[in-house]
Amino acid sequence: MANYFNTLPLREQLAELGKCRFMHLDEFEDGVEALKGKKMVVIGCGAQGLNQGLNLRDSGLDVSYTLRAAAIEEKRQSWKNATENGFTVGTYEELLPTADVVLNLTPDKQHTNVVETVMPMMKEGACLSYSHGFNIVEEGMQVRDDITVIMVAPKCPGSEVRAEYVRGFGVPTLIAVHEDNDPNGEGLALAKAYAVGTGGHKAGVLMSSFIAEVKSDLMGEQTILCGMLQTGSLLCFDKMVEEGVDPAYASKLIQYGWETVTEALKYGGVTNMMDRLSNPAKIRAFDLSEQMKDIMRPLYRKHQDDIMTGRFSETMMADWANDDAELLGWRADTAETPFEKTPAGDMEIAEQEYFDNGILMVAMVKAGVELAFETMTAAGIIADSAYYESLHETPLIANTIARKKLYEMNATISDTAEYGCYLYNHACVPLLADFMKPIKSDVIGKGLELDDTGVDNARLIEVNEAIRSHPVEAIGAELRGYMADMKRIV
Amino acid sequence: MPSGAISLDGLSVDFDGRFELVDITWTINPGEHWLIVGANGSGKSALAAVLAGEGSSISGTISGVPERVCLVSYERQAELIEAERRKDDADILDVISEGTPAAEIIADASHDHDLAQELVDSLGLRPLMGRAFRKLSTGETRKVMLIRALTRNPELLVLDAPFDGLDNKSLGWLQAHLAQLAATVPMVLVLNRFDECPDFITHVAYIDDGRLLETVARDDARAMAELGKLLHLQTTDLEVPAADPSAELPPLDPGEPLVCLTGATIRYQDNTVFENLDWTIEPNQHWQLSGPNGSGKTSLLALITGDHPQCYVNDIKVFGFQRGSGESIWQIKQYMGYVSTALQWEYRVGTGLRNVIISGFFDSIGLYSKSTDVQKALADEWLALLGMSHRADEPFNSLSHGDQRLVLIARAMVKHPPLLILDEPCLGLDDINRQLVLALIERICASGKTAVLYVNHRPQDRIPGIEEHLQLDA
Asked: Are residues A198 and A245 in the same domain?
């Protein structure tokens, strides 16, 4: 199988990368009608599979689960998940031939194998849905011509997909139709109904393409989302310990600090996150982030270039073929890092203190978000996609770190994200070594502790202007505005 | 018990078979001034009257009551007027009797005549002194009663609703006089309005249904505030707000049960929670569901609410929908209001109270839909009923546990669902808040067309009007 993206002429590559549109609520007035009475069969009963299925069933749709015969016989966890929740469970042979829609919710790594197995069993004119475009775009999976191929990708972990639905809301969701596989022109209607069934339409749906989703998702997850937070955690912890900060405090400041500062990011973009700092701290954070952006820019470009050319997925698939030797080795190393091994202390850290004592962390988030956004848009990815895959998703990963620290975060995120995080972390730690040398506890661990918090007016205006006029802020304000229109009152 | 204290120990008192005080245990220590509060008919006047020796003791003891207890109450006032009237009837001479003049009524009872004259002037009774007592207005006879009590050198002054019917000038004067008197005379006041509580009051007793349920020290600000809300809820004239006329639910078949479970079973791999359970809930039928922990009460409710995934493998019909026939969960939820501790934990939002109540129209946690002016107005009516009007925009998560529960009950009821499910609504609440919640539920039960399904294992948390009962065994 060849990399699908690379088979397209540049013109079409750019057109696909440029697809991304925020859909309006009135485009979903048909509700789940397009799926009503159709037989939906889910492959994979992990967190996404189970929780999406629960939502779809609660929306009045017919959902069952298919598992490999061995998983059923051995009553594996996936079988328990499905049966205890009252779903019909059957083998591929039992359920797939009558399925109208097959939902492939297995990990990326298994896609080729799964799709090759199920495709021959699927009935004429059925629909195959993905929640990630990797298999189609990077692995070049060729799906039978009569089958409609769509993507519905809730932009949150499975548990949240369910929790938000139960609250009466949903999570932002990306949908796409694989143009080469839309024989009856019904792909969009099916994808929209699926998004309604999971509650996604209430939180905002982005109409994208398989290609834009893959190329932006890979870039975001390996740089700012997982890579930058992982690298930043390790560097900041070691620096604080070196500077004599209580390791238990340092561990807590990092574990919960990302979540706290990116919460500000979620509400009001980089501008609001920076505004949470005092004036002198803001100027320090700005300067630090500018330095880091200059140092890391080539790394971000390399990641984006490798994603665009397909080199990243080749490297990763080679490691898959090698039983994940590189990845698992690195994962084990993460468990041994001082940050991971130092439990968070039980001291109180006030919300504002995470900003005041975490100036460097704020600077890292700003540098990572802006660089990822700049690099993606420079590569032809539309600003809307770039925003979602950088700034918008950072708080989600930060939240995972707050709950589970790094090792578990890596075990939780997708195969592609973890492999990308591994590559990034490997390169970025040495890259920032010289930058980190002169860093003191005033910007990480203890706060500036200034007697005089005055700043120069002209400099403050200059810094504010630079923060506010970054392109990620303009598109962010627009998209957050749409989200607010969705009337989520938080 | 310190010397000089008045002590009631397990005291039950009968009032002519009309009312009973039950098992009152209460101590009034020297230096304390008490306020007795409660809803109408709760027994607060009876409790006050007991101190003046009224009622017949059934069991328990009362001790330490001083010799001169002076009681002013409507009952005493009525008795005196009645006595005057009988005197009149008893007059066998064919002379038109004016009855006893007010001056005489006062002089008969007073020990301190100089003070009596001073009070007569202060309360503006001077021009009425020659008039017959029974010809005075209610407010005027009340003033006479007060003067009688205040001038008898009381050792304990018991004043039942002393401020009712007084003009502002007299009220101000009386309050000042009582404040002065408080330094030497212990007092027990009964008031209908909490906000009239004089500054010298040190303790508050809360009575309901003849039982002393709560005693609160004045300086316990939190408990005082909760007591205030409870009284509001029990005494307010506000009604349970109406449903939203512009958003009526699709009508249900009135002949069909709201809920029908047939052979309901919840089973996990190695554990059966319950099996083969049949249950039908008819419209307007109030149920109590009880059973020990682990008997599956919450799971059973979740089958009805659709929150338990095994609702799809059971034979369940709710609001006319056979579960698993292509209905959506939101079609089910629109007919239900639901309150539980779990919901309260889930409801961790900083949304304002008004929006929390409005979210009940949408069955959502948080508010994600545009609301109409009518919905906003109804939410405000609910807040008024709860005595929380001034807090409409306060964030929900800053409320006390008990207040959150009240707001969630209002949220559940705001759309007037055919079925209201209350899963241990008093769980985790202290006594006052428990009373608050029960008072609100009672108002709801009495208010209309909602069937209430009430889950509880505390037998003392009874709600009048709930007759059907389902018991689950462990």
From this structure: no
Which CATH number goes with the domain that contains B220?
A: 3.40.50.300
Question: For the CA atoms of chain A, what is the radius of gyration?
Answer: 23
What pLDDT score does B95 carry? 58
Strands (E), A155-265: 173-177, 205-208
Contact between B8 and B53 under an 8 Å Cβ cutoff? The reply is no
Question: Which residues of A fall within a CB distance of 8 Å from B366?
Answer: 167-169, 488-490
* B313 min Cα distance to partner chain A (Å): 6
* CA-based R_g, chain B, Å: 28
- Split into its structural domains, chain A has a count of 2
pLDDT (0 to 100) of residue A489: 36
Residue B244 makes CB contacts below 8 A (sequence gap 6+) with B361, B372, B374, B375, B378, B414, B415
pLDDT in tens, chain B (474 residues): 446 899 999 999 998 887 899 999 999 999 999 999 887 778 888 999 999 999 999 999 999 999 999 999 888 887 888 788 777 655 555 555 667 888 989 988 888 889 999 999 988 889 888 888 877 877 788 889 999 999 999 999 999 988 877 777 888 889 999 999 999 999 999 987 677 789 999 999 998 889 998 898 988 888 888 887 777 777 776 677 888 877 778 888 888 999 999 999 998 877 888 999 999 999 888 898 987 777 888 889 999 999 999 999 999 999 999 999 999 999 999 999 999 877 887 787 778 999 999 999 999 988 887 888 999 999 999 998 888 888 899 888 877 777 888 899 999 999 989 999 998 888 766 666 777 778 778 777 776 678 999 987 665 666 777 888 888 876
Of the residues A58, A76, A482, the best mutation for testing chain B's interface (the one with the most B CB atoms within 10 Å of its CB) is A58
Size of interface A-B (CB pairs under 8 A): 67
Is residue B245 assigned to a domain? no
Tell me, yes or no, whether A204 and A227 share the same domain: no
Tell me: do B163 and B284 sit in the same domain: no
DSSP for A329-392, written as a single string: HHHHHHHTSHHHHSPPPS----HHHHHHT-HHHHHHHHHHHHHHHHHHHHTT--HHHHHIIIII
Rounded to an integer, the average pLDDT of A78-95 is 93
Is A3 inside any structural domain? no
C-alpha to C-alpha distance for B306 and B425, rounded to whole angstroms: 19
Whole-number Cα distances in Å, B118 to B106, B128, B147, B151, B175: 12, 14, 10, 10, 15
> What DSSP element (H or E) covers B62?
strand B56-63
Domains contained in chain B, number: 2
Chain B nearest C-alpha distance from A111 (Å): 28
Is the dihedral angle over the CA atoms A331, A214, A373, A48 positive or is it negative? negative
Chain A residues within 8 A (CB-CB) of chain B?
32, 36-37, 54, 57-62, 75, 80, 84-87, 166-169, 202, 486-490
The CATH number assigned to the domain holding A49 equals 3.40.50.720
Which residue type sits at A186? E
Nearest to A489 among B310, B346, B366 (CB): B366
The residues of B whose Cβ lies within 8 A of any Cβ of A are 268-269, 306-307, 309-313, 326-331, 346, 349-351, 355, 359, 362-370
Range of the domain at A301: 212-485
Which among A36, A166, A486 is the nearest to B368, CB-wise?
A486
Residue of B nearest to A33 (CA): B326
B306–A58 CB contact, under 8 Å: yes
- Residues B400, B280 share a domain: yes
pLDDT at A490: 33
Interface confidence: ipTM more than 0.90: no
Active site residues of A: 132
CB distance A202–B368 less than 8 Å? yes
For residues A162 and A221, state if they share a domain.
no
